[in-house]
Amino acid sequence: xxxHWAFADVFVARGPATVAYGLxxxxxxxxxxxxxxxxxxxxxxxVAAMWLLNLVLERCRASLWxxxxxxxxxxxxxxxxxxxxxxxxxxxxGHRATYHPPSHFWPLHLVETGIVLAVTALATAAAFxxxxxxxx
Length: 136
Hints:
Layout (H helix, E strand, L loop, with lengths): L7 H6 L3 H20 L2 H22 L7 E5 L10 E7 L5 E6 L4 H31 L1
Antiparallel strand pairs: 1-3, 2-3
């Protein structure tokens, strides 16, 4: 089970989010270096900022795309490749499961990649604006 698509490290490593995170780290690092004007403190703050972004997106990942909810009067099994979010019983005594099927991998992955690229664009624009103001 260590290579299930829903695990955080595996999820990011299987698509363009890996490159997006690298570009974002570069842009955030450049912006923070321009703000702090010191290399080592900027490195520490940049690492902390990227860790925080990764943590927030990892915790919010399940809500980036609407999950599937299945209910039944009898007990049922989800496919092994499904990302199970909730499992429980209904008020009428049936069973309910909320999950992401494997077909949700790419929509989830591309939404997260888009968020990371938006942060990258904002950090890049802020860095250029700050640099332009200092050199003008």
